[in-house]
Design goal:
Elements lengths: L14 E8 L2 H10 L6 E8 L17 E8 L10 H14 L9 E4 L3 E4 L2 E12 L5 E9 L24 H19 L5 H10 L7 E5 L4 E9 L5 E6 L2 E5 L3 E4 L1
Parallel strand pairs: 1-2
Antiparallel strand pairs: 2-3, 3-7, 4-5, 5-6, 6-7, 8-9, 8-12, 9-10, 10-11
């Protein structure tokens, strides 16, 4: 818990710029970083003309949803950055929880950081990084949340907040996200707080103990989702006592 210590990160440490339209809030943040922005900058847009998800997939970005990216500069030593997606998922989950009514279907996180309502995807998170010429490292956290628009997705069942009786606007949801991210990044503490983050992540995780298939770039592996290790790696039990740690992949429940 953080109540008995001084906070290192607060709401006042972050700036926000709201755009009507941009190609991609992630690309906008990267451009700002290359131009020397000091970081802790949120960029939101009502619409994206070139939104993207993981592995270069198109992220449909019409008006009515929340499209937000956070630029962080040198947020942690490189060896600790692997736990950041878990922290981001915890923060996004916390924000969405604030705008869902009591009795809504379960709000969960699918490893590593897709947010599901009733096992349907309502949020995607894309974390990208680049070493800058001045030796700073820019890390961009892109977050797209289906508020009132529900694009078709051939890979996963999808939903939006409106389908779950949430009346929140993208602006209201972002206010919750702005506060939740500051809170969780303070707990994460440049990766030093990974134990607290992984503990929180496990309490909101989807499908631990279930049979899953993980699609990797070169193959698919099936087994039982045994949870995550202390660094956030997915632990896949393939049987006969063999557990495979996985750093990145697409998870499908069977």
């Amino acid at each position: 818990m953080v109540s008995d210590r001084r906070r290192r990160i607060s709401l006042g440490d972050f700036r926000h710029e709201a755009l009507s339209e941009t190609s991609s809030t992630n690309s906008e943040c990267l451009a700002r970083a290359r131009a020397g922005d000091p970081g802790n900058l949120w960029v939101t847009a009502e619409r994206q003309t070139g939104g993207r998800g993981r592995r270069g997939r198109l992220w449909v970005s019409e008006r009515g949803n929340l499209y937000a990216s956070l630029l962080l500069i040198d947020p942690a030593p490189m060896e600790r950055l692997g736990s950041l997606p878990l922290a981001v998922a915890v923060a996004v989950h916390q924000a969405i929880r604030q705008v869902l009514p009591p009795g809504a279907e379960p709000l969960e996180v699918k490893w590593p950081n897709d947010i599901l309502i009733g096992r349907k995807k309502t949020c995607g998170i894309l974390v990208e990084g680049e070493q800058l010429p001045d030796c700073r490292y820019a890390l961009i956290v892109g977050i797209g949340i289906n508020v009132s628009v529900m694009p078709d997705n051939p890979l996963y069942p999808v939903t939006c907040l409106r389908q779950h009786a949430s009346a929140a606007s993208p602006e209201e949801l972002f206010a919750h996200l702005f506060a939740a991210m500051a809170d969780v990044l303070d707990i994460w503490d440049q990766g030093r707080g990974i134990a607290e983050i992984t503990a929180r992540w496990r309490t909101i995780a989807c499908g631990i103990g279930e049979k899953i298939t993980v699609n990797l770039p070169d193959r698919s592996i099936s087994g039982q989702f045994a949870g995550i290790d202390d660094n956030g790696l997915l632990m896949l039990d393939t049987g006969a006592g063999r557990i495979i740690p996985i750093a990145a992949g697409d998870v499908f429940f069977r």
